[in-house]
From TrEMBL:
GO cellular component term of the entry, any: cytoplasm
Taxon lineage: Bacteria, Pseudomonadati, Pseudomonadota, Alphaproteobacteria, Rhodobacterales
HAMAP family: DapB
Reactions catalysed according to its record: (S)-2,3,4,5-tetrahydrodipicolinate + NAD(+) + H2O = (2S,4S)-4-hydroxy-2,3,4,5-tetrahydrodipicolinate + NADH + H(+); (S)-2,3,4,5-tetrahydrodipicolinate + NADP(+) + H2O = (2S,4S)-4-hydroxy-2,3,4,5-tetrahydrodipicolinate + NADPH + H(+)
Name this polypeptide is given: 4-hydroxy-tetrahydrodipicolinate reductase
Presence of the UniProt keyword Cell division in the record: no
Naturally occurring in which organism (per UniProt): Halovulum dunhuangense
Matches recorded under InterPro entries: DapB_C (IPR022663), DapB_N (IPR000846), DapB_N_CS (IPR022664), DHDPR_bac (IPR023940), NAD(P)-bd_dom_sf (IPR036291)
Keywords: Amino-acid biosynthesis, Cytoplasm, Diaminopimelate biosynthesis, Lysine biosynthesis, NAD, NADP, Oxidoreductase
Subunit: Homotetramer.
Residue sites binding (S)-2,3,4,5-tetrahydrodipicolinate per the record: 159, 168-169
GO MF terms, alphabetically ordered: 4-hydroxy-tetrahydrodipicolinate reductase; NAD binding; NADP binding; oxidoreductase activity, acting on CH or CH2 groups, NAD or NADP as acceptor
Catalytic residues identified in the record: 158 (proton donor/acceptor), 162 (proton donor)
Protein family: Belongs to the DapB family.
Name of the gene encoding the protein in the UniProt record: dapB
């Protein structure tokens, strides 16, 4: 039998970092070989298991991402755009699969991720759950079928700690709706209304972000016409759906050609 896939996790103390550590532990084909946290974080230099309040695991929390990349076949990264950009270059250097769940990138930052894709398998998705990725396909099909008599609005709600808006998922859904209509999302996206906005422009795709409490992630894609409305909805109630998707991506990426991939590739749902 071949050895287990060695997986590193960036941002171990984060909401997703802790889920990812659990998900790697649950995956028979994977083993956790390294974790990082932000330089200066209280967990640096401590045993991961003890830092998490349990028994020792023999993995020390590092502030050196290169060390983790060097000892891993895949690294899963749900941190910040700045940290992920630096990590992409290290993934290329180490020829390591880089699974990126981080959201909140600017267009310029997304372009800056590209050079690394020549040397490493880079799987990036604003949402790694099966349900949301299926929802993007449904959104594209419904948008294609309905035409501009149906106004498209995307509403998302997340916990009070989320720092970026609209969510990465809302942007994925917006891209999918625009693709269904055969238009560029950037040309039709209306990313926030306030004050005297004027009437809604036909063909626009509106996005609205709500923040509060401990909401894991909720997304509605609303198709509103005169006299009727269709609502496609995804409700996430457990962050493990994202973590399990990320581990699946890390395993799927082994032996692939360097390049840019997303969860539609991983799930085999590309038509
Ligand atoms: N694609 C998907 O399916 C999903 C994506 N996300 C995205 O993942 C990201 C993280 O979300 P969440 O876990 O809730 O956020 P958290 O803030 O809880 O976690 C991020 C972690 O990364 C750490 N960190 C920051 N900088 C570095 C660094 N340079 N090196 C190592 N670690 C670092 C943070 O440390 P500190 O707090 O000390 O700064 C923190 O522990 C967000 O962009 C979010 O939108 C979330 C869920 C699902
Ligand atoms: O920050 C979060 O929590 C989440 N972020 C992702 C996003 O921006 O869409 C995915 C999920 O909705 C949770």
């Amino acid at each position: 039998m071949q050895g287990k896939v060695r997986i590193g996790v960036m941002g171990a103390a984060g909401r997703m970092g802790q889920m990812l550590i659990r998900a790697v532990g649950e995956a028979e084909a994977a083993t956790l070989t390294g974790v990082t946290e932000r330089p200066g974080h209280a967990w640096i230099g401590r045993d991961l298991g003890e830092a998490m309040g349990g028994p020792a695991r023999g993995v020390t929390v590092s502030d050196d991402p290169l060390e983790v990349f060097a000892g891993a076949d895949a690294v899963i990264d749900f941190t910040t755009p700045q940290a992920t950009l630096a990590n992409a270059a290290l993934a290329a250097q180490a020829r390591c699969v880089h699974v990126i769940g981080t959201t909140g990138f600017t267009d310029k930052e997304i372009a800056a991720l590209e050079p690394a894709q020549r040397h490493s398998v880079q799987v990036r998705a604003g949402n790694m759950s099966l349900g949301v990725n299926l929802l993007t396909l449904l959104t594209r099909k419904v948008a294609q079928a309905l035409g501009e008599d149906f106004d498209i609005e995307i509403v998302e709600m997340h916990h009070r700690h989320k720092v970026d808006a609209p969510s990465g998922t809302a942007l994925m859904l917006g891209e999918a709706a625009a693709a269904g209509r055969g238009v560029a999302f950037a040309d039709v996206a209306d990313r926030g209304r306030d004050g005297q906005t004027g009437a809604r422009r036909r063909g626009d795709i509106g996005l609205a972000a709500l923040r509060g409490g401990d909401v894991v992630g909720e997304h509605d894609v609303i198709f509103a016409a005169d006299g009727e409305r269709i609502v496609l909805r995804h409700l996430a109630t457990d962050r493990m759906i994202f973590a399990r998707g990320a581990v699946r991506a890390a395993l799927w990426g082994q032996g692939r050609k360097p390049g840019a991939y997303d969860m539609i590739d991983v799930l085999g749902m590309r038509d």
